[in-house]
Amino acid sequence: MSVNKEEVLQLFRERIGQIKSYEEALGVLFWDMRTGAPRKGTESRSKAIGVLSSQAFALQTGEDLGQWLTALEQPEILNTLGEVDQRLVTETRKDYDRSVKIPPKLHEEYVILTSEAESFWEQAKETGDYASFQPYLDKIITYTNKFIDLWGAKETRYDTLLDMYEPGITTAELDRVFGGLREKLVPLAAAIAASPHQPDTSFLKQNYDKDAQKKFSKFILEQIGFDFEAGRLDESVHPFATGLSTGDVRITTRYLADDVTSALFGTIHECGHALYEQNIREDLRGTTLCTGTSMGIHESQSRFWENVIGRSRPFWNRYFGNLQELFPGQLDVPVEDFYRATNVVAPSLIRIEADELTYNLHIIIRYEIEKLIFNEGVTAAELPALWNQKYQEYLGITPENDAVGVLQDVHWSGGAFGYFPSYSLGNMYAAQMTETLERELPNVWELVGKGELHPIKDWLTDKVYQYGKLRTPAELITAITGKPLDPQYLVDYLERKYKDIYKL
Amino acid sequence: MSVNKEEVLQLFRERIGQIKSYEEALGVLFWDMRTGAPRKGTESRSKAIGVLSSQAFALQTGEDLGQWLTALEQPEILNTLGEVDQRLVTETRKDYDRSVKIPPKLHEEYVILTSEAESFWEQAKETGDYASFQPYLDKIITYTNKFIDLWGAKETRYDTLLDMYEPGITTAELDRVFGGLREKLVPLAAAIAASPHQPDTSFLKQNYDKDAQKKFSKFILEQIGFDFEAGRLDESVHPFATGLSTGDVRITTRYLADDVTSALFGTIHECGHALYEQNIREDLRGTTLCTGTSMGIHESQSRFWENVIGRSRPFWNRYFGNLQELFPGQLDVPVEDFYRATNVVAPSLIRIEADELTYNLHIIIRYEIEKLIFNEGVTAAELPALWNQKYQEYLGITPENDAVGVLQDVHWSGGAFGYFPSYSLGNMYAAQMTETLERELPNVWELVGKGELHPIKDWLTDKVYQYGKLRTPAELITAITGKPLDPQYLVDYLERKYKDIYKL
C-alpha cells in the first residue's frame, strides 16, 4: 500500500487535536457543573454533554482514523516518525481498538445503566439499604464481564480492567506489592493503636474563619509553585483537579468551619495533580498525550505533596508561624504538637477519611474483592459479608451497617472496577521516588525547612511532569529510581515516620 | 415525493436539539473566558472554540438538513405541524439559506480578517491612529458587500444587514422612526443643556465599598425577580448576559470603587436580558426558538428595567433607604437629589457612557453612516470627517481625536454592521410597551413604590418573554400595543421625564 505519509500524518494530528479540544470543552462543562452552575440548568446541560460526548466518541472511532492508524503503523513509516508521533500512534491504537470493540448499542445501554445506578447507589447509601442497590451492581458486573469478553482477557480477566487505569499493571504484580504491604502494615497499625503516646488533636476542632483558610490555601499554593496564570482555585463539595490544557488547570477545595486541616491538605493534594498537568512538555500540548500517564502516577504526585511534603516536620517548622498568624489565639501550641496532630493514625471505616498508613489497607480490601468478582465469579450478593470480614481482619473493626461499609464508595456504581489500586500505587510510587529525590537532592529537607520548594517541583518536572503520557508508569519509575515498583520503600517510609511519632 | 413525516420531523428536531446543545456548550466556553479563565489557557481554549464552532456550522449547513426542510416545507405537511414546528421550519430555513450561500473559503477568510481586525482596532483606538485601521475597515466593507451580493439585496442593500439583527426592519422604517426621534430629541437635549436646574452629582463620586455594592446588586435582582436557581451573577470587565438555557442564565457586572451607580444600573440592565431568557415557554426549550426574538426586543427589556423602572422616582422612593443603609454616612441626601443625580442628561462623545436621551442620537449617527456606506458607497476614508460633522450637528460637540470619535466602538471591526439600530429600537419598544403597561396595570407606579415588582415581570412574561422566537418583533409590538412601532412614545416619555427633572 502506498500512502502519502505527510498527508496522513497531518490528518491524524488534526483528528487528535479535535479529540483533545472536545475533551477540553467537556472538561469545562463538568467543572462548571461542579462549581456553581444553577440547579435548574442540569437537564439541558446533561443533554449538551451527551451531544458533545457522542461526537467525541465518533471522532475517536471513525473508520478514517482506523485507516490512518493502519497506514502509520507500517514499520517503514512508523520508524521515521518522531517519538511523540510514534507514541501517539500506539496510544491512539489502544484506545481505538478498545472503543470499536464495543457495539454502540451496548455502550449506550451501559451508559444509561451506570447513570441510573449512581442515583440508586446514593439512595441506598443514605438508608444503608444494600439490597436495593444489589440488582444494579449485579447488572454492572454482568456488563463489565461482557466488555472483558469483547476486549479479551489478559493474564487474568481482572487484568483487563486494571490496564485501563494503570497501563501494564497486572494482578500478579499487585499480589506481590500489596502482599508485601499488607504483611507489614497490619502489625504496624496494631502497634500504633496500642501505643500510649497518642497525639492530642483537640485544638484542631475549633471554629476556623473561612476567609483566613482561603488565604492560607492560596499562600501555600504559591509556595509550592502552582501557577495562578495557568490555573485557578475554586470551591466544590467534592474537591477535584482538572487539566483543561497546560495553561488552564483547575483545582477545587472545601472549607470546613470546624477543621482547619481539611481544606489545607485537600488543597495541597489537588495542587500535586495540578503541578503535573501544568508542567507537561510544550511539544505534547494540544495532543492526547498531554495529560498524566496513569491514575497511579497522578496519585503519586498528589500524595507526595500532601503527605511526604505537607505532613512533614520541616514543612511545619517553616509554615506553622504563618498559619498561627492567620488564626490569632487559636493555635497557641508548639509546632511539634501540630505536626503530630496532623499525623494521627487510627483504624477507621471510611476510606476517604483514613490516614496515610491505614488508607492502604482500605485499598487492599477493595482490590482483593474486585479480584474475587472478576477472577472467581463472586456475586454482588456476597459482597457485604466479604467486606465486613476483611475490615475485621485487616483493620480490627466491623462496619455497623453497609452505609459505612460496602456502600461507601461511588466507584462501583459507575462501573469503575480496577480504579482503586491506583490510590495505593500512588503512595508506593511516591515513597520510591522520594528515596531517589533524597539521594539526588541531599539537602531537600533543609530546603523544605526554609520554604524553598521550587527545586522539588523542578526535579519532579524533570523526572515526571514533562513527559505527560509519553512514558508508561513502569518506564517512568524505572528510569527515575533505577528499579521497578517496590513496596518496601513505602513500608520503610511509614515505619520510620510513625515509629518516631508514636515512640514505638 | 413521498416522505415519512414523523421520521423526518424527528430527525429535524434531533438536529435542532444538537445545534442548541452546541450553542449552550459554546456559551459556557465564552462565559468562562470572560469571567476568570486563566490567561495562559487562551490559545488552547480558542482552538477548542474553533473546533466546536466548525462542527456547529456543519450541523447547521448539512445537506441532510436541507432535505428535511424541503420535505417539511411541503404545504400538505407544513400545515399539519404545530405552531412551534412550523416556526422552527421557517426560522431554520432562513438561517440555512443564509449560511449555505457563503462559500466556506470566503467565510474562513472573513473570520480570520475580522479576528485580526479587532486587535488592530484595539491598537488604533489606543493611539487614536485611524489610518492604521482604515485598510482593515475597507476590507471588511468589501467582504460585507460580497455577502450582500450572495444573500441578495433586499429593498436596499443595507436592509439585508439590518434583517440579521432585527428581522423585518427596513431602512424605510428606520428613516421614519429615527427621523421622528431626531427631530424631537435634538432640541430637547439643547433645552436641557441650557437649563439652570442642573442636578448635583458630586456625592456620587466617593469610595463605595465593593462588598456592599455586591450585596445591593443581589438584593435588587431578587426584588425584580431574577431566579438565582436558574442563573448566577458574576464579574467581568465588560458586563453581559448569556442565556445558556432557560434554567441557566448568567449575567455579569463590574463594580467601580468610585461610582455606586455603574454596577447598580448595569446589573439591572443585564437582569432585563436575563428575565427574558429565564421565562421562555416550556415547549420551546431545547430548540433554537428558545432565545430572544431580536436584538431590539432584547434591548427593550434591559432598557425597560434599567431606565423606565430603575431610574424612576417611585423605584427610589422605595429602595433608597436600603441603599443608604449599606453605605452609612455616604448618601445623606434627600431621595429626590439621588433620583435627579442618576438622571443627568448631557451631550457627550462616548456612546456607552451616554444618558438615556442622548444615547439615541449616538445611535442615529451610526445608523446614518452605515446607510451611507452600503447604500451610497461611502468609503472608510471618508468616515472620520462624516462622524465629526454629525456629532457637531446633533450633539453640539466635536471629538478632539478619533479615539473618542469614529474609533470608539468595537462593532465595525467585527463586521457587525446593522447592529447599532437595535439599541434605539429597544428604547422605542420599551416606551411603547410602557404606555400599554400603564393602561393594563393602572396601579403600576404604586406597585413600584411599594417594591412589588413581580406583577410587572409577570405582565412582560405574558406579553413578551414566553414567546422566545415564536413571534417576530413586529408581531409582538403590534399584539401588545395594538400599533406598529411608533417613536412618539419614546419622545413623550423623555419629554415628560426630563421637563420635570430640568424644570423646563
UniProtKB/TrEMBL annotation, chains A, B:
Chemical reaction(s) catalysed: Release of a C-terminal amino acid with broad specificity, except for -Pro
Enzyme class: hydrolase
SUPFAM superfamilies per the UniProt record, alphabetical: Metalloproteases ('zincins'), catalytic domain
Example GO biological process: proteolysis
Cofactor: Zn(2+)
Molecular-function GO terms, alphabetical: metallocarboxypeptidase activity; zinc ion binding
Binding site for Zn(2+): H269, H273, E299
Cofactor info, note text: Binds 1 zinc ion per subunit.
Domain of life of the organism encoding this protein: Bacteria
Membrane-spanning ranges: none
InterPro entries per UniProt: Peptidase_M32_Taq
Keywords: Carboxypeptidase, Hydrolase, Metal-binding, Metalloprotease, Protease, Zinc
Active site (catalytic residues): E270 (proton donor/acceptor)
EC number: 3.4.17.19
Function text: Broad specificity carboxypetidase that releases amino acids sequentially from the C-terminus, including neutral, aromatic, polar and basic residues.
Protein family membership: Belongs to the peptidase M32 family.
Protein name per its UniProtKB record: Metal-dependent carboxypeptidase
